[in-house]
Amino acid sequence: MIPKAELHCHLEGSMPPDLTREIALRNSIILPPEMFDAQGHYVLRDFLTFLDAYDKACGALKQPRDFTDVLYRYLEGAARQGAVYVEMFCSPERPKRLGISYGTWLGALAEAIDRARRDWGIEGRIVIICIRHLGPESALAMAERMVAEPHPYVVGFGMGGNEAKLAPIDFAPAYRLAHEAGLGCTVHAGEVVGPESVWASIRDLPVTRIGHGVRSVDDPRLLEELVRRDIALEVCPGSNVALGLYPSRAAHPLHRLIAAGVPVTLGSDDPPFFHTSLGEEYDKAGLDEAALRKITRTAIEHSFADAETKKKLLKGLS
Length: 318
Description:
Layout lengths: L3 E3 L10 H10 L20 H12 L5 H17 L2 E8 L2 H5 L4 H19 L2 E9 L4 H13 L5 E7 L11 H9 L3 E6 L5 H10 L4 E4 L7 H10 L2 E4 L1 H6 L11 H6 L4 E3 L11 H6 L5 H13 L5 H11 L1
Parallel strand pairs: 1-2, 2-3, 3-4, 4-5, 5-6, 6-7, 7-8
Helix pairs in contact: 3-5, 6-7, 13-14
């Protein structure tokens, strides 16, 4: 089995339907039956049905234990598929609304990471993400909390949410604070908005990775800049196809990005919602074993893990 590494997956988006039902039951949450199909999968017809199912699944989470179970289940599944390292995108916004303190929430996630390492030999880390459409002030407050309460498993700062809202430069203070504290930085860009979104991100934010970034393929000069600066793209083909950005995997620009020399990794984004997995992303990439191993190496090299962890993981690839 080819060793794998993942840099682009959202915690709540990793919840499989059976676990969502289990957590909802113990928290006395009633899930609408129409959010699942006859096979028990999440219903996904378009972007709006995805958002609706995602929000309802997230609504089942009520206590720290729930977050532990979600992260552990994902790490277990990824390890079974050959993953040796996963960085999970985690937002403190939901636990905050539930009255769960930042420290308690991180402790719940750390428990999952420690247990998964012990049980499955996989390393897990956390990238805290702010939500773009909640605004720069919220992002800055989140970065301030990260810096004030550092945790060894929190290795990066990123931003998700509506890419069309606000400009990257509006979030520069939050990113600057995280960067100066030694955290790696990434940002969702070039997914639903064109290359200009990626240009603005690499110009105004201290990022070394771009979440998605597939629209970079529309601008040859941008591709050259990404290569020159060794900025990696966290590419999620299954997600892009499921949301209609591209009609098929064959039409997806993954191979063109690789041919241009851009560092790329493979991610599953919100896997059960898009009926994919990290293993499927590797299996359906249309690449030979050498190319897939290179993608894993790229992911580890561009991860936000500490030098010693990277060295250990890279040694395991040889």
